[in-house]
């Protein structure tokens, strides 16, 4: 199979760095262009970026010049990790110019013709790109907290139906980008507000667990996602953790379930990435931890190269029925790795 040329837009940022680390040596995508803002354009990557990952910057990227997104890019695929607000017009323009854009930003996630995708959860929603009417297309992955939560909810929704869910997050500082939250705000502290985050968790979850309808109401209109009928309530907090978002979830299921049934639903859960053996797919998307004090973000975010989600502490909840704790990498599974898995899915389905 021919290797596709890829540009990373927002290459100097927290997620951009993850992209470079994950795409280095990738069997299907080769990074041929690096893009950032006017602050960095024209500089060599190593000069403009403050590399914060533990693994060293791959040598092939150090001397590559940074471009602007409106320049001609020698690439077919674009992995985008730029701030929301900026991302909307920049990504639309890239798709109009023929690039196949896989985005981390929120701007287009809820557009009716843009797939909001987790390949294990709703791979069939990929078909929405056919309605975009541009030479290229736009595909998004969810917010980093939503991905972790929905990976844990999907097996339960399939097996028992979920009626109501209360989710309280404990989110890592790397989720705020680089340099992120000021030290004096977060050291020894919990910040009980992240702008816009709760709305994202509540709305994106319903689109992800929703159903692709060929034409809503049986008419001749375009296909659309019918949101899942779940009542969601989210509270999002920032905690002094470097990597890994965690969520305490309380769920009301549509029918009675025993503890063993829920554990089995999680452990047996597989999706298209596993069936298609996509290069970045975890073998087991959801891992159940039996120890009472696990999962923990620092110890468990790297499971299956950061692509698996951990669940644990399943126990009865006197109000909604069941409660549990889940955790996963925000910059790999929740961002760069998620976009790369989306692109691998598109390649495997012949959509790229
Ligand atoms: P970040 O560290 O602040 O990085 C932002 C990047 O965007 C930098 O490379 C910056 O370049 C570049 N940029 C800014 N304006 C640009 C423009 N007009 N054209 C091209 N590049 C531009 O942010 P981040 O945390 O990596 O987040 C990136 C996106 O991913 C955001 O939309 C965020 O919400 C989303 N996201 C982040 C996470 C996470 O865990 N961090 C998870 C999921 C989704 P300069 O260096 O030149 O300024």
Description of the structure:
- The protein has 352 residues and is an alpha/beta fold.
- The protein has two domains: 4-143 and 336-348, NAD(P)-binding Rossmann-like Domain (Rossmann fold); 144-329, Dihydrodipicolinate Reductase, domain 2, CATH 3.30.360.
- The chain contains twelve helices and 14 strands.
- The chain has helices at residues 14-23, 45-48, 59-62, 87-96, 119-122, 144-160, 183-186, 197-208, 259-267, 272-275, 297-300, 332-348; strands spanning 4-9, 29-35, 66-67, 77-80, 100-103, 137-140, 162-171, 211-213, 224-226, 231-238, 245-253, 286-289, 309-317, 321-328.
- The chain has a six-stranded parallel β-sheet, with helices on both faces.
- Helix 11 (297-300) links the parallel strand 12 (286-289) and strand 13 (309-317).
- Helix 1 packs across helix 12 and helix 6 packs parallel to helix 8.
- It is globular, with a radius of gyration of 20 Å.
- The protein starts with a strand and ends with a helix.
- It binds NADP nicotinamide-adenine-dinucleotide phosphate.
- The site of NADP nicotinamide-adenine-dinucleotide phosphate (NAP) has 32 residues, from helix 1, helix 4 and helix 12.
- NADP nicotinamide-adenine-dinucleotide phosphate binds next to helix 1, helix 4 and helix 12.
Helix content: 25-40%
- Structure class: alpha/beta
| Gap from first CA to last CA | 12 Å
Percentage beta strand = 15-25%
Shape: globular
CATH superfamily of the largest domain: Dihydrodipicolinate Reductase, domain 2
Total number of β-strand segments?
A: 14
Order of strands, widest sheet: 3-2-1-4-5-6
Helix tally equals 12
Mean pLDDT: 97
Any idea of the CATH topology of the largest domain? Dihydrodipicolinate Reductase, domain 2
State the name of the first-level CATH class of the largest domain. Answer: Alpha Beta
């Amino acid at each position: 199979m021919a290797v596709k040329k890829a540009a990373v837009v927002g290459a100097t940022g927290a997620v951009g760095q993850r992209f470079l680390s994950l795409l280095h040596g990738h069997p299907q995508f080769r990074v041929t262009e690096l893009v950032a803002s006017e602050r960095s354009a024209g500089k060599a990557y190593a000069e403009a970026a403050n590399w914060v990952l533990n693994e060293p910057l791959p040598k092939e990227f150090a001397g590559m010049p940074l471009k602007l997104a409106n320049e001609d890019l020698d690439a077919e695929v674009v992995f985008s990790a730029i701030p929301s607000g900026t991302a909307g017009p920049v990504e639309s323009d890239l798709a109009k110019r023929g690039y196949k854009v896989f985005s981390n930003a929120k701007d287009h996630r809820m557009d009716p013709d843009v797939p909001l995708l987790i390949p294990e959860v709703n791979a069939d929603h990929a078909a929405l790109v056919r309605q975009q009417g541009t030479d290229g297309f736009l595909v998004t992955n969810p917010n980093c907290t939503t991905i972790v939560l929905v990976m844990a909810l999907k097996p339960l929704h399939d097996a028992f139906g979920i009626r109501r869910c209360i989710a309280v997050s404990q989110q890592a500082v790397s989720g705020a980008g680089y340099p992120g939250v000021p030290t004096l705000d977060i050291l020894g502290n919990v910040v009980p507000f992240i702008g816009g985050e709760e709305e994202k968790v509540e709305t994106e979850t319903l689109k992800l667990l929703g159903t692709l309808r060929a034409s809503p109401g049986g008419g001749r209109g375009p296909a659309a996602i019918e949101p899942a009928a779940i009542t969601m309530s989210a509270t999002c907090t920032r905690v002094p953790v470097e990597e890994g978002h965690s969520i305490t979830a309380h769920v009301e299921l549509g029918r009675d379930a025993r503890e063993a049934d829920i554990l089995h639903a999680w452990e047996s859960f597989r999706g298209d990435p596993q069936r298609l053996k996509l290069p970045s797919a975890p073998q087991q998307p959801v891992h159940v931890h039996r120890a009472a004090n696990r999962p923990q973000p620092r110890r468990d975010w790297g499971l299956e190269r950061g692509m698996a989600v951990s669940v644990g502490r399943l126990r009865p909840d006197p109000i909604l029925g069941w409660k549990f704790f889940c955790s996963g990498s925000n910059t790999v599974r929740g961002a760069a790795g998620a976009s790369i898995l989306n692109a691998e899915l598109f390649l495997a389905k012949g959509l790229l």
